[in-house]
């Protein structure tokens, strides 16, 4: 990890910065898992372990397919849309203090990127 994180890079491309951030999350998660397991808190370690494995898988996928990094970053708009829909269905009162302008602009972004994630089948 130190070989990748410590050098002062001149300039990183977007996908490289994303991979670096995912690597830092994986390394930090692993230290947390080791610490928790070593102190008899395996259940807490399992929660962190799953996120750590998912981040490692994503980092490896993006290493192999760097052209997918932009889609990976834009996926957050889809997740945010799903969160808003869920909150409207389950806890509408939680959204009352949330700025409506922010929600509207987030929804516009979600609409803009959702075509990237549609599956149109085999033609």
Task: Report what the structure shows.
There is one protein chain. By secondary structure, the chain is an all-alpha fold. It folds into 2 domains: 2-64, no CATH class; 70-117, no CATH class. The protein contains 5 helices and no strands.
Binned, the helix content reads over 70%
Weakly predicted, low-confidence segments: none
Number of domains: 2
Gyration radius from CA atoms, angstroms? 19 Å
Mean pLDDT: 86
Topology diagram in text:
Layout: H1 2-5, H2 14-38, H3 42-64, H4 69-90, H5 100-113
How would you summarize what this structure contains?
The chain is mainly alpha-helical.
Key terms:
72% helix; 2 domains; mainly alpha; 123 residues
């Amino acid at each position: 990890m130190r070989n990748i994180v410590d050098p002062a890079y001149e300039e990183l491309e977007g996908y490289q910065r994303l991979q670096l951030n995912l690597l830092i999350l994986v390394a930090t998660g692993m230290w947390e898992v080791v610490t928790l397991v070593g102190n008899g808190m395996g259940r807490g370690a399992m929660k962190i372990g799953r996120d750590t494995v998912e981040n490692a898988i994503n980092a490896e996928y993006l290493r192999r397919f760097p052209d997918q990094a932009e889609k990976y970053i834009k996926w957050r708009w889809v997740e945010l849309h799903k969160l808003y829909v869920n909150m409207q269905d389950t806890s509408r009162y939680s959204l009352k203090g949330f700025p409506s302008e922010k929600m509207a602009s987030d929804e516009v972004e979600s609409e803009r990127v959702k075509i990237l994630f549609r599956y149109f089948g085999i033609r």
